[in-house]
Amino acid sequence: MNQRLFADENFPAPSILILREAGHDVQSVAEAAASTADQAILAMAVAQQRWIVTFDRDFGELIFRRGLAAPSCVPYFRLRHYLPETPGTMLVEFLKKHTALSGYFVVLEDDGVRMRPLSRVV
């Protein structure tokens, strides 16, 4: 199932292209709203019904500690060493295997994946 994604400014452009080529609707913060604050990006993602794809752990802080509204899913990458294409390829493969991600903060790491329920009803 193709997703509507909002790629944070730190998400590599080659990975955005991979996601688009796989059929996902990806809006890029770097292309559409460069230098926008995380809180505003979060609000835009919620309003546009897009997932935020990011390397920025501040989104977890905004959602879990500050209680701000969350999109239905946040794929958060914690990779130590990677090529610019790696996150896009990882997410495409992950989405092929996992279709019920609504309501989760998903942490994709070098050695596995963790899923934490978001603190709101989706």
Could you characterize the architecture of this molecule?
With 122 residues, the chain is α/β, with parallel strands linked by helices. The chain has a domain at 1-80. Helix content is 35%, strand content 24%. It has five helices and six strands. The strands form two sheets. It has a three-stranded parallel beta sheet with strand order 2-1-3, with helices on both faces. Strands 4-5-6 form a three-stranded mixed beta sheet, with helices on one face. Helix 1 (13-21) runs parallel beside helix 5 (86-97). The longest helix has 12 residues, at 86-97. The radius of gyration is 13 Å and the shape is globular. It starts with a strand and ends in a 5-residue tail after the last strand. The relative contact order is 0.19. The model has no long low-confidence stretch (mean pLDDT 92).
The CA-CA distance between the termini, in Å, is: 18 Å
Order of helices and strands, N to C?
EHEHHEHEHEE
**Tally of extended strands?**
6
Strand content: 15-25%
Biggest sheet architecture: 3 strands, parallel
Radius of gyration: 13 Å
Low-pLDDT stretches = none
Query: Into which percent range does the helicity of residues fall?
Result: 25-40%
| Secondary-structure content class | alpha/beta
Rounded average pLDDT? 92
Overall body shape: globular
- Structure annotation, total helices: 5
Strand order of the largest sheet: 2-1-3
